[in-house]
């Protein structure tokens, strides 16, 4: 729902008459220094009314942010502009009846990184005269300096965002006699930082588009274009795509697509544009289908994604095995769930490949990188391939001459493009904010790495994964889900939960706790199985849930630890091959050797999902989170 009423905003003092058609939804003020880095942008130009199509495209970008949104559509009398705090669904209800039938427009869905979420800071941002509207994804690093300069030239700012300078820079260029195209191209000379930008002008039937360091692709239909942050945005509308290179600028209109280039003081339009490529993604892969949420769809897809990975990954990793084998140091880096995968890699390499490897949180990598060099290899784990901390880690590794391997779900992502080697996750798009199928795929790739280092026959390494796949199939059955839902019901009133595991099962405890926190809002703390009695036991109260992960090998020690907790009032939930003597509830997960963590996490993904639903939370869109964390 929208958080504020729609109010028509009057024109600025220096606005032209056409600006009267522009309206804004307004609420309170915002904090200074706001930037807009983790957002989705989408546009449409062609023969159909733009507004419904832009809203449709933005809806499929909501995983990139859902704090606030807005659109600008060209009309005969000027730009129609609407913005709101809240989700696209609420915005659509308010806007669709009002939006003009203009066929050129741009839109934005935002995830605020600094400052409060409010309409002032929602995009699009407009120039002083209301003639130009822009949407931006990225960080303009020199925004403060540009604001001061533009303010000195008489520009007035309506938001606290870094992005707004873009609209005023174009306006200033045009005031000084430049064409819209030339003023847009001049952005490249003025902006420092990262950006994907779409701009429209009330008097030009086109969208101008450029990118540097932030994602932007163009869907190409018949006489229509869909520039957007990501392919799923427009995939049901067209499967053909042009990938924009760094610093490339394009003009898109119903008449065609041109590349913009600077020629002296002028801008020229060139027709040598890339041929659109057909996208291999299916529409089903980005739709919820009959599922209530993307999260449960993606959880249940894991039998299939793992199977595909087992078949296709051995060939994909073939080339990197010698690099891993011959390197002095192997380092895994990742953030959040991807860090948990990195940690699994550490346990696995010790057990299977008999190699010590390090696993670091991406944002901590700078404290370790000095020890690396050209004979090291850094494996960057990232579902999105866009996580800023992991991207920075890759840069740091490369500065030290260390080759990098990207293990990612997005093969054209920034981390993939920067890395010497790319190993895909074979998972298909993951659209729920919480990582599920990408996590099990990361574990599976690392298991294959480990097995490949242990033997010269990478294909051999798939055996434990086949075993995991079979277990996984059982754990996602309707009966298993019903049982997990019942366990979830028991957690409904809990204020806190503790999760423990030893060795690689500690990784499952970490990942399960993260899922419970982010998806179902439960304060969940993961501890190594041996650590509870070293302090945290003090927090255990009557009825505190304590969830234990173990395999046959850990069974005895886990029983002892669980009994200690039980005698202090904890309610014991066990996830392993057989119940513990103290179990109040048990989720049966049979051992699958080194691949057991792939299997054990499944009921916890389901549990988090079910608990969120029981609490009437939206599992796909956890509070305060976005899918790609493109801010450091
Ligand atoms: C948790 C989750 C996040 C991501 C993290 C890194 O469910 O999704 O913790 O794992 O933001 O993202 P990627 O893997 O895209 O680098």
Low-confidence stretches: 1-33
Largest sheet: 8 strands, antiparallel
Number of helices: 18
Please identify the structural class as seen in this structure.
alpha/beta
Assembly classification: single chain
Structurally, how many domains make up the residues? 3
The fraction of residues assigned to DSSP E strands is 15-25%
What is the terminal-to-terminal distance?
A: 30 Å
Radius of gyration: 26 Å
Mean of the pLDDT scores? 89
Please give the order of strands in the largest beta sheet. Answer: 3-2-4-1-10-9-11-15
Shape descriptor = globular
**Roughly how much helix do the residues carry, as a percent range?**
25-40%
Bound molecules: fructose -6-phosphate
CATH H-level superfamily of the largest domain = Aminohydrolase, N-terminal nucleophile (Ntn) domain
Word description of this protein:
- The relative contact order is 0.09.
- The protein is α/β, with parallel strands linked by helices and 632 residues long.
- The protein is globular.
- Helix 15 packs across helix 18.
- Fructose -6-phosphate binds at residues 335-338, 382-384, 387, 390, 434-435, 514, 518, 628-629.
- The site of fructose -6-phosphate has 15 residues, from helix 10 and helix 16.
């Amino acid at each position: 729902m929208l958080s504020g009423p729609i109010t028509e905003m009057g024109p600025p003092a220096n606005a032209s008459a056409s600006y009267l058609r522009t309206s804004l939804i307004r609420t309170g003020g915002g904090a200074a220094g706001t930037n807009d880095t983790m957002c989705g942008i989408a546009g449409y130009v062609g023969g159909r009314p733009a507004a419904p199509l832009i809203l449709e495209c933005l809806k499929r970008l909501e995983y990139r942010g859902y704090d606030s949104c807005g659109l600008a559509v060209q009309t005969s009398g000027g730009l129609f502009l609407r913005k709101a705090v809240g989700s696209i669904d609420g915005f659509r209800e308010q806007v669709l009846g009002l939006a003009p039938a203009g066929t050129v427009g741009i839109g934005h869905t935002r995830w605020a990184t600094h400052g409060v979420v409010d309409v002032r800071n929602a995009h699009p941002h407009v120039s002083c005269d209301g003639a130009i509207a822009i949407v931006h994804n990225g960080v303009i690093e020199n925004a403060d300096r540009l604001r001061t300069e533009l303010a000195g030239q008489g520009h007035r700012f309506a938001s606290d965002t870094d992005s707004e300078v873009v609209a005023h820079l174009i306006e200033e260029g045009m005031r000084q006699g430049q064409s819209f195209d030339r003023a847009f191209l001049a952005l490249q000379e003025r902006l420092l930082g990262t950006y994907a930008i779409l701009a429209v002008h009330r008097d030009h039937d086109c969208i101008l588009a450029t990118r540097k360091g932030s994602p932007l692709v163009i869907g190409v239909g018949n006489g229509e274009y869909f520039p957007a942050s990501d392919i799923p945005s427009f995939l049901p509308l067209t499967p053909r795509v042009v990938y924009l290179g760094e610093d490339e600028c394009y003009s898109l209109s119903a008449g065609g697509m041109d590349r913009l280039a600077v020629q002296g003081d002028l801008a020229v339009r060139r027709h040598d544009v890339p041929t659109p490529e057909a996208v291999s993604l299916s529409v089903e892969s980005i739709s919820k289908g009959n599922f209530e949420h993307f999260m449960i769809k993606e959880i249940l897809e894991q039998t299939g994604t793992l199977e595909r990975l087992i078949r296709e990954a051995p060939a994909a990793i073939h080339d990197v095995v010698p690099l891993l084998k011959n390197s002095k140091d192997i380092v895994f880096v990742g953030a959040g769930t991807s860090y948990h995968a990195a940690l699994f890699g550490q346990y696995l390499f010790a057990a299977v490949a008999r190699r010590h490897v390090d696993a670091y949180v991406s944002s901590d990598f700078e404290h370790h990188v000095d020890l690396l060099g050209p004979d090291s290899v850094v494996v960057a784990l990232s579902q999105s391939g866009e996580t800023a901390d992991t991207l920075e880690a890759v840069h740091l590794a490369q500065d030290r001459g260390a080759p990098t391997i990207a293990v990612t779900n997005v093969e054209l992502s920034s981390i993939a493009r920067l890395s010497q080697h790319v190993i895909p996750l074979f998972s298909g798009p993951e659209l729920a904010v919480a990582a599920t199928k990408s996590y099990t795929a990361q574990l599976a790739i690392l298991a294959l790495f480990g097995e490949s280092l242990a033997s010269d026959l990478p294909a051999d390494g798939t055996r434990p994964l086949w075993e995991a796949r079979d277990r996984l199939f059982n754990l996602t059955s309707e009966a298993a889900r019903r049982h997990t839902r019942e366990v979830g019901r028991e957690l409904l009133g809990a204020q806190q939960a503790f999760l423990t595991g030893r060795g690689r099962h500690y990784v499952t405890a970490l990942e399960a706790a993260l899922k419970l926190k982010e998806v179902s809002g439960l304060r969940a703390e993961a501890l190594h199985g041996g650590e509870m009695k070293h302090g945290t036991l003090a927090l255990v109260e009557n009825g505190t849930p304590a969830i234990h992960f173990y395999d046959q090998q850990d069974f005895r020690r886990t029983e002892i630890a669980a009994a200690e907790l039980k005698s202090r009032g904890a309610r014991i939930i066990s996830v392993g091959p057989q119940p513990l003597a103290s179990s109040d509830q048990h989720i049966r997960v049979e051992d699958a050797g080194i691949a057991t963590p792939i299997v054990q996490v499944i009921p916890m993904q389901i549990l988090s999902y079910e608990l969120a639903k029981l609490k009437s939370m939206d599992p796909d869109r956890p509070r305060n989170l976005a899918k790609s964390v493109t801010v450091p």
